[in-house]
Amino acid sequence: MDNLDALSSDGENYVQYGNDVIFVRDSGKVGLELTNDELEFQFCSDGCMGKRVVVCYDCENTDEFLRGDCDLNQCDFRAGVKKEAVAASSRRQNLLWFVTIAASRPFDDIDEICESIIMKSPEAGVSFQTTPIKSCDPKKYDGKVIKLSVRGVKHGCPF
Question: Superkingdom, according to UniProt (predicted)?
Answer without folding.
Answer: Eukaryota
